[in-house]
Write a structure and sequence with these properties.
By secondary structure, the chain is α+β, with helices and mostly antiparallel strands. It folds into two domains: 1-47 and 99-330, no CATH class; 364-480, Immunoglobulin-like (Sandwich). It has helices at 2-10, 16-20, 27-44, 80-98, 101-105, 108-124, 143-168, 174-181, 188-208, 211-216, 219-223, 238-241, 259-265, 276-279, 300-311, 323-327, 338-359, and strands at residues 49-50, 53-54, 56-59, 64-67, 70-73, 233-236, 245-246, 253-254, 318-321, 364-370, 376-377, 383-393, 399-406, 412-415, 420-422, 427-436, 448-458, 466-475. The strands form six sheets. Strands 10, 11, 12, 14 and 16 form a five-stranded antiparallel β-sheet that branches. Helix 4 runs antiparallel to helix 17 (338-359). The longest helix is centred in the N-terminal third of the chain and has 26 residues, at 143-168. It starts with a helix and ends in a 12-residue tail after the last strand.
Length: 487
């Protein structure tokens, strides 16, 4: 009689599954669409240019940073700390809200594994029977599968080369990248990096697999300290489904493997012990054990349980929710809480700082360095100071430059006397001599440094391209400067 009642309890109700799952779209399908969007963005972004500059490019070759169509010289890399803060604060904020959502929905490692395992091995070559069972590896004792394995690796090798090239496009612009590949002998470092990165992707995706996420990736160790009771993740409901494991933490041991065993202890338990959530997990964990470092929030287990429980006319036992809501039933998840608000405030402040600093970009850079010789005293009492001026044209077109001393008409530019032209992105070093015939100081004990302001500008665009730099003019002590008679 108990067996009859038990079977009736778990027998799918007529049309309940269709009605319950009406309009439901698997998280797996949503992830696939998100993967496509991420891939398209990653492939297209290096090709996008604004006013001749890339949308994003960190060029080690040209020593420039392109950000939102604006090119910054290496001497202007004060923006890099802002970009790094955006990266880390963004990861912290995403983790606090959605757990390892990055891992399951945008990480290249996960996307590559889905392409290789679910598409190439399963859908294209049929090495795996179904994408629903990720625990069972293809039977490599079959000669047929051995040949398919070689084909799968060859296909992935081609894709790895494309992925490696795409990665390099963010450091070597595509137009230069393909030009360099025409002469590989002259660019062996580029070719070496390309092949090394492709080889790493082949080894990682084909042989290391999800062990990279479990044992190598440091993010899994960091994310646990960022979680709280309202962090959204894949959570099994032990109150409805029954506690399948006993003990605490990593020492929890499985106590029920069959549905009858579970019902004998907890008649109200709804988990059917079908193991669908286990077999579909790419990192080979049982979500019913609780929070685990290996979980990447791919939500495959949520899809599996939703189908099984939907056939029984019940909501899924595994949900994308928080421990507070789904595990302990203590109320709704609080998405906008103190920690999250603090992260977003910090992100906004960093963004404001980034755009503020970026808007103050100088279209000409000038470094003023004094030579090791403090001064030179001519026979007529004129004092000269030598400098090295390093000009850099960070604008997108050629300009004609000149400079002058401002705020002190007693110091003049002796050399050079004429302006000079400098092409876009070019640099030029100039030896500059400042001199004075006036007595700037009268100190018998020591040399006197006189503050000097240098104003450099583009003659053809003086309103836009102008910079000022502070330096010193060293005037000798009084006994060294001898004025000729009559002066």
């Amino acid at each position: 009689m108990e067996a009859v009642v038990e079977n009736e309890k778990n027998k799918p109700k007529k049309n309940v599954s269709k009605e319950y799952l009406k309009g439901w779209i698997e998280y797996r399908i949503k992830r696939y669409w998100f993967y496509i969007a991420v891939t398209v963005v990653a492939l297209v972004m290096p090709w996008i240019k604004i006013n001749g500059n890339h949308l994003f490019l960190l060029s080690f070759d040209h020593k420039k940073l392109h950000l939102a169509g604006v090119a910054f010289d290496m001497q202007e890399l004060y923006l890099m700390p802002f970009l790094l803060m955006l990266l880390f604060l963004g990861i912290f904020a995403v983790t606090a809200i959605g757990g390892r959502a990055w891992c399951g929905w945008a990480c290249p490692q996960t996307i590559f594994r889905v392409i290789y395992r679910d598409f190439i091995e399963t859908k294209l070559l049929g090495m795996r029977k179904s994408i629903k069972n990720k625990q069972k590896e293809p039977d490599m004792e079959k000669a047929e599968n051995q040949g398919k394995k070689v084909v799968a690796i060859l296909i992935w090798t081609v894709l790895s080369l494309i992925a490696a090239a795409n990665f390099l496009w963010y450091f070597v612009p595509p137009e230069d990248f393909f030009a360099y590949l025409k002469n590989p002998g002259e660019h062996m470092m580029l070719v070496g990096i390309l092949l090394s990165f492709a080889a790493f992707l082949i080894i990682d995706v084909v042989f290391i697999k999800e062990d990279f996420c479990v044992y190598i990736c440091p993010y899994s160790r960091v994310q646990s300290v960022l979680y709280d009771d309202d962090t959204v993740m894949a959570v099994y409901d032990p109150i409805r489904g029954g506690d399948i494991y006993q003990g605490h933490g990593n020492d929890r041991n499985k106590q029920f493997t069959k549905y009858k065993e579970l019902l004998a202890v907890n008649p109200a338990a709804e988990c059917t012990t079908c193991e669908s959530c286990v077999t579909i997990c790419p990192t080979h964990i049982d979500i019913r054990k609780g929070l685990q470092l290996e979980c990447i929030n791919c939500l495959e287990c949520v899809d599996a349980c939703t189908k099984v429980m939907g056939a029984l006319g019940k909501p899924s036992l595994v949900r994308w929710s928080s421990e507070k809501e789904a595990l302990r039933h203590e109320g709704k998840t609080q998405y906008f809480r103190g920690k999250v608000i603090a992260y977003f405030v910090a992100l906004i402040l960093v963004l404001v700082g980034l755009f503020t600093m970026g808007s103050t970009k100088e279209h000409m850079l000038l470094n003023v360095n004094k030579t090791t010789r403090l001064y030179k005293i001519l026979e007529n009492g004129t004092v000269e100071n030598d400098y090295i001026f390093l000009f850099a044209n960070t604008d997108s077109k050629e300009h004609t430059y000149f400079f002058e001393v401002v705020g002190n008409d007693k110091i003049i530019v002796e050399r050079p006397k004429e302006s000079f032209r400098l092409g876009a992105g070019m640099k030029k070093k100039k030896v500059v001599v400042l001199q004075t015939q006036a007595q700037l100081a009268n100190d018998a004990r020591k040399d006197v440094p006189i503050p000097v302001t240098i104003k450099a500008y583009a003659i053809d665009d003086k309103e836009k391209i102008v910079v000022e730099r502070e330096t010193v003019f060293v005037y000798p002590r009084a006994d060294l400067v001898k004025k000729p008679s009559g002066l």
